[in-house]
UniProtKB/TrEMBL annotation:
Species whose genome carries this gene: Labilithrix luteola
MF GO annotations: ADP binding; ATP binding; phosphoglycerate kinase activity
Cytoplasm listed as a keyword: yes
Name of encoding gene: pgk
SUPFAM superfamilies in alphabetical order: Phosphoglycerate kinase (SSF53748)
PANTHER family named in the record: PHOSPHOGLYCERATE KINASE (PTHR11406), PHOSPHOGLYCERATE KINASE 1, CHLOROPLASTIC-RELATED (PTHR11406:SF23)
Classification via HAMAP family: Phosphoglyc_kinase (MF_00145)
Residues bound to substrate: 25-27, 44, 67-70, 126, 159
Protein name: Phosphoglycerate kinase
Quaternary data: Monomer.
Length: 402
């Protein structure tokens, strides 16, 4: 359910002077520089600031908790939240206390010493395997730290993990932060009550990752625009020889079924008419060819300019757009024009534009100054936004309802 029905927002929770546990999603991309872990994109930290600031200003004792990466065997220094704490301290201009564990005496000591308006960030929740098992004992150890629970970790609400599910189940005073509220409102609007025409733009690497979302979108949209490696499979399904392009052979029949369903539902499908090809993903330059004329030993790595112009016609008429997945190998310059072109075209459209996280959100930030700011909503959740669009009930949201 994509509404805030029966969910209390932080504004209405009794947080003054209380110990308030805020589950955030600080699972940020890291890069190693001179042996140190450096944050490559701090968007998820910035997006959580309104909730954190609100709690501090209202005199709460703020306990932040997050996962980072997927540690397999207990604590891993490379996945410590310490660099995140340092960035947060810079952004807030206050000290952020960092206990070296999220439960037990280390955490209790720091949390119980907090005064009103002070803040701490617990160490990576996934250093305990119990987090991903939704373990109730682990959740009760976290519950010992707090009086009030706030979930602002949209990127993690599709996970039934202890800090997003078992914990709020046992904390009576619970609700959502401003980011979760904003995400539910924007994604909810686009799937429950979109202004029409409603255009979905899907791309990325695999059809298999997006079958469920594709099928559910077909019930709601007017136009389906497909690009990226995903389009290769659809073009091959129509009998086009994609030569060395990345395609999913075992999804050709499924692609045909989706195209038939789209026809039944009167959904217009727009596929690339030209592509940028090269002999390898390492090639320094690409060549634009029509989709039916890909030379031997060449692969499609981006959509071409005519495809972009065709897609643009749909964007110009659209009133709502949902975009997930890049149009090509956008990380490499010769193959980035299609993705950046779609980003700029959507930024300039008058439609309500929503990006479903992941690579497309990163691409929009690289597309040029001011492009990202022009989107109506860029979700901080990849998997979570897709599952919400599919119409699934997400455990971290449902558990907050009264
Ligand atoms: N034609 C293509 N050939 C090869 N790789 C491609 C092509 N088109 C897109 N890609 C690659 O697909 C990857 C993105 O695919 P993915 O399905 O993961 O996208 P996403 O859903 O936006 O990301 P996330 O899973 O992080 O939410 C990018 O690394 C991109 O370079
Ligand atoms: O980055 C994400 O999509 C969220 O933080 C969830 O992370 P996960 O896929 O490792 O559970």
């Amino acid at each position: 359910m994509t509404t805030l029905d029966r969910i209390t927002t932080i504004k209405d929770l009794p947080i003054e002077n209380k110990r308030v546990f805020i589950r955030v999603d600080f699972n940020v991309p890291l890069e190693e520089e001179n042996g140190k872990q450096v944050i490559a994109d701090d968007a998820r930290i910035r997006e959580a600031l309104p909730t954190i600031k609100h709690a501090m200003e209202r005199g709460a004792r703020v306990i932040l908790a997050s996962h980072l990466g997927r540690p397999k065997k207990g604590p891993d220094p490379k996945l410590s939240l310490e660099p995140v704490g340092a960035r947060l301290a810079e952004l807030l201009g206050v000290e952020v206390h960092l206990p070296d564990d999220c439960i037990g005496d280390a955490a209790k000591k720091v949390v119980y010493d907090l005064r009103a308006g002070q803040i701490c960030l617990l160490e990576n929740l996934r250093f305990h395997a119990e987090e991903e098992k939704d373990d109730e004992t682990f959740a009760s150890q976290l519950a010992q730290l707090c009086d009030v629970y706030v979930d602002d970790a949209f990127g993690a609400v599709h996970r039934a993990h202890a800090s997003v599910h078992a914990l709020p189940k046992i904390v009576r005073e619970r609700g959502c932060g401003f980011l979760l509220e904003k995400e539910i409102a924007a994604l909810g609007k686009i799937i429950t009550n979109p202004d029409r025409p409603f255009v979905a733009v899907l791309g990325g690497a695999k059809v298999s990752d997006k079958i469920a979302v594709l099928e559910s979108l077909l019930e709601k949209i007017d136009v389906l625009v497909i690009g990226g490696a995903m389009a290769n499979t659809f073009l091959a399904a129509q009998g086009i020889n994609m030569k060395s392009s990345k395609i999913e052979e075992d999804k050709l029949a499924l692609a045909r079924t989706i195209l038939e369903k789209a026809k039944d539902k009167k959904v217009t499908v727009a596929l690339p008419v030209d592509v940028v090809v090269a002999q390898s993903i390492e090639s320094r330059e690409g060549k634009v060819v029509d989709v039916g004329s890909i030379p031997d030993h060449h692969m499609a790595l981006d959509i071409g300019p005519r495809s972009l112009a065709e897609f643009q016609k749909h964007f110009d008429k659209a009133k709502s757009v949902f975009w997930n997945g890049p149009m090509g190998l956008f990380e490499k310059k010769p193959f980035s024009n299609g993705t950046f072109g779609v980003a700029r075209a959507l930024a300039d459209s008058k439609a309500f534009t929503v990006i479903g996280g992941g690579d497309s959100a990163a691409a929009v930030k690289d597309a040029g100054d001011g492009v990202a700011e022009k989107f109506s909503h860029i979700s901080t959740g990849g998997g979570a936004s897709l599952e919400l669009i599919e119409g699934k009930k997400l455990p971290g949201i449902e558990i907050l309802r009264r």
